[in-house]
Structure to design on (134 residues):
């Protein structure tokens, strides 16, 4: 049984070949939650660090559909992980209550598949408050 309390990489099918190009598909059976929202970020300057927050309830899957994203994650048990997303068919599951930061190459396009609608009250944007949730 999969542990949805920790981040993990999810490999999506990659169908095609170099002469035709490729397609990747996220079927609902292969997702850890039913998506309620999809958003994407792009043109992030390379010196900008995004994220810097946790969510009480939201679960997400991040994908670099172009370029490269470096993600650090931290759980309340102190576990810190570092992920490099640089394959369009590779996603990163981010659980609830997980502090994360992201850095992007200039050409990176990030898609986020999210388990809930946008709700600012679901964010913890202060690191000390996050640690206080232990
Ligand atoms: P945020 O989630 O903090 O971005 P990141 O994790 O990439 O650093 O969101 C950035 C801003 O965009 C913030 O002001 C909230 C707003 N926003 C929405 O209005 N709706 C959304 O669905 C998302 C994801 C963000």
């Amino acid at each position: 049984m999969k542990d949805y309390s920790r981040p993990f990489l999810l490999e999506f099918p990659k169908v095609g070949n170099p002469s035709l190009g490729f397609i990747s598909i996220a079927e609902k059976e292969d997702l850890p939650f039913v998506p309620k929202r999809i958003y994407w970020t792009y043109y992030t300057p390379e010196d900008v660090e995004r994220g810097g927050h946790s969510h009480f309830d939201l679960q997400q899957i991040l994908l670099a559909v172009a370029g490269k994203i470096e993600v650090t994650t931290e759980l309340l048990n102190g576990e810190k992980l570092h992920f490099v997303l640089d394959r369009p068919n590779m996603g990163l599951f981010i659980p609830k209550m997980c502090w994360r930061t992201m850095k992007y190459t200039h050409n990176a396009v990030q898609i986020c598949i999210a388990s809930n609608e946008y709700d600012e009250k679901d964010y913890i944007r202060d690191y000390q408050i996050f640690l206080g949730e232990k």
